[in-house]
């Protein structure tokens, strides 16, 4: 998409800071996220010449490994996970800046030795004394790692460099635990140096929502309840609890795991007012206003507006799969939802009365995330003699896979009779720009190195999102008469109760 020179967004977009050299320390260096996402993201940035020179990567984990052993393991997983393949020459150059530091998160000495290790790396000046700590660890370790970084003085900037921290989800399991985590974070790093990753915000189509809305005159005037009948945000996953996912998932559920963070973030991007500029705080201020305008739900509203469900035994891709309660590491009488559908209202000027339907489910027929805005139908007076057809225009944003957008409209069928059919105008990133989108972690790592926190969640965003979610969880788990848990067969699109939720207002879920 080209942005014309008289576009007011242009200056802001082009003046984004550039990523700076630094020492990147990954806590949890032998874990799944490091192998599948972080190292392939860094490798791809290196392959595209986007990684600033002077980047040094240090892995921190408990197992005993030499630098070479860890590099070889990383090369192996990069071959499997890199989006652009694995060029041995690029890899060798990139890997020469990787080292491993063995340590236990609880051991303060390990942080002092890490400090000496980083001083040695800094000695040639290539990192400009900048340090970026990435907490790719289970959440129970966040506080101890932060406290030990502080104890070793590693949270302090030195010699003109900066020191920042990136923290992974889950950011608490409710408002109280999120506040406690934020308290520990703010004891160690300033809010400006804290980068809370929500990898959905790093996805190209999520970033494109603001461009679509605020750089195109065609959409913005329609972007309000006067013209929009309903909004749908769907995140479907075909996976269940395989690969040991059950343990964590059963303590969280679809709402805490996906809605509190990723789906509410997407809702904010759709619903927010134009920010005064594209600085991180202006954008995040507007998102917080949306979160504060979400209509809070008491137990009765939860029962009326939310459907929760668990999958039962079924078939996906011709394969028979067990029900949620039969999965490994799931409690026998678990009351954790693997599916949730919500009707959310935003009580502000722009969105008064427009339902936002948000659904997330495991073991649905396919993996897909998309947002659709359904416009109100025009008066049918001219075409009332024709067979009735759903006349609403629908703007769809596909977040994954096949990132892109489409607009549904009605058109005359070619021929000598008047017949109307829906048609679709489609835009795919791959075919329009000749290349696929980078992985979300690539963009987010570069932004953290550049000091641009726009795509990271601020403290008050996280806490306001929990405030909304806590009321729902409390109606489910603390109320005397909790609403029932619905069921859906694995491989279906969810329980009939979720269809009924939309049918009450004459709506239906968009087919993905
Ligand atoms: N994996 C994903 O796709 C994904 C996606 C989104 C968010 N996340 C989040 O990212 C974080 C990391 O996830 P993950 O899947 O990579 O976890 P993981 O595979 O379980 O890896 C955990 C890492 O922590 C290290 N570790 C554990 N206890 C330690 C200790 N006492 N001292 C030092 N190191 C210790 C392990 O090192 P040793 O093996 O040497 O013990 C390992 O490197 C989690 O917060 C998760 O929620 C993950």
Q: How many individual helices?
A: 15
Query: What would you say the CATH architecture of the largest domain is?
Result: 2-Layer Sandwich
In CATH's first tier, which class of the largest domain applies? Alpha Beta
Roughly how many Å apart are the termini? Answer: 25 Å
Low-confidence stretches: 1-8
Can you describe this structure?
The two termini are 25 Å apart. The chain is of the alpha/beta class and 512 residues long. The protein contains 15 helices and 18 strands. Helix 2 crosses helix 3, helix 2 crosses helix 13 and helix 10 runs parallel beside helix 14. The radius of gyration is 24 Å and the shape is globular. It folds into 2 domains: 150 residues, 3-Layer(aba) Sandwich (Rossmann fold), CATH 3.40.50.720; 230 residues, Dihydrodipicolinate Reductase, domain 2 (2-Layer Sandwich). The structure holds NADP nicotinamide-adenine-dinucleotide phosphate. NADP nicotinamide-adenine-dinucleotide phosphate binds next to helix 2.
């Amino acid at each position: 998409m080209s942005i014309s020179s008289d576009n007011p967004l242009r200056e802001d977009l082009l003046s984004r800071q550039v990523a700076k050299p630094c020492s990147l320390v990954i806590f949890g260096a032998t874990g799944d996220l490091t192998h599948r996402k972080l190292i392939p993201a860094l490798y791809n940035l290196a392959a595209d010449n986007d990684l600033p020179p002077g980047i040094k990567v240090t892995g921190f984990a408990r197992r005993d490994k030499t630098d070479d052993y860890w590099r070889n393991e990383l090369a192996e997983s990069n071959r499997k996970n890199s989006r652009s393949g694995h060029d041995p020459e690029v890899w060798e150059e990139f890997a020469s800046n990787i080292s491993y530091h063995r340590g236990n998160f609880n051991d303060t000495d390990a942080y002092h030795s890490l400090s000496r290790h980083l001083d040695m790396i800094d000695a040639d000046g290539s990192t400009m004394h900048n340090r970026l700590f990435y907490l790719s660890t289970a959440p129970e370790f966040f506080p101890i790692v932060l406290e030990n970084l502080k104890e070793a003085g590693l949270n302090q900037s030195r010699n003109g460099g900066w020191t920042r921290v990136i923290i992974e989800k889950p950011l608490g399991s409710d408002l109280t635990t999120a506040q406690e985590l934020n308290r520990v974070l703010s004891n160690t790093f300033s809010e400006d140096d804290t980068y809370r990753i929500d990898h959905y915000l790093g996805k190209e189509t999520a970033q494109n929502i603001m461009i679509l809305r605020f750089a195109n005159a065609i959409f913005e005037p329609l972007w309000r309840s006067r013209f929009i009948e309903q909004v749908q945000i769907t995140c479907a996953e075909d996976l269940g609890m395989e690969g040991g996912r059950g343990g964590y998932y059963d303590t969280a559920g679809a709402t805490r795991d996906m809605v509190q963070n990723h789906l509410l973030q997407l809702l904010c991007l759709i619903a927010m007012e134009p920010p005064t500029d594209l600085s991180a705080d202006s954008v995040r201020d507007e998102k917080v206003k949306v979160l504060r305008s979400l209509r809070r739900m008491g137990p009765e509203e939860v029962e009326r507006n939310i459907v929760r469900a668990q999958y039962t035994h079924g078939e996906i891709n011709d394969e028979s799969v067990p029900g949620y309660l039969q999965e490994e590491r799931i409690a026998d009488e678990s009351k954790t939802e693997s599916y949730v559908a919500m009707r959310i209202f935003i009580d502000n000027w722009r969105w008064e009365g427009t339902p936002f339907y948000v659904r997330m489910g495991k073991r649905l027929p396919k993996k897909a995330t998309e947002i659709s805005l359904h416009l109100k139908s025009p008066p049918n007076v001219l075409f009332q003699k024709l067979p009735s057809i759903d006349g609403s225009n629908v703007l769809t944003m596909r977040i994954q896979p096949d990132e892109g957008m489409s607009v549904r409209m009605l058109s005359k069928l070619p021929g000598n009779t008047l017949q109307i059919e829906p048609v679709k105008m489609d835009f795919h990133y791959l075919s329009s720009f000749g290349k696929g989108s980078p992985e979300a972690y690539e963009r987010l790592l570069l932004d953290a190195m550049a000091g641009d926190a726009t795509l990271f969640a601020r403290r008050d965003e996280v806490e306001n999102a929990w405030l909304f979610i806590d009321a729902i969880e409390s109606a489910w788990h603390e109320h005397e008469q909790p609403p029932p848990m619905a069921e859906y067969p694995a491989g279906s699109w969810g329980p009939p109760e979720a269809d009924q939720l939309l049918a009450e207002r004459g709506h239906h879920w968009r087919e993905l």
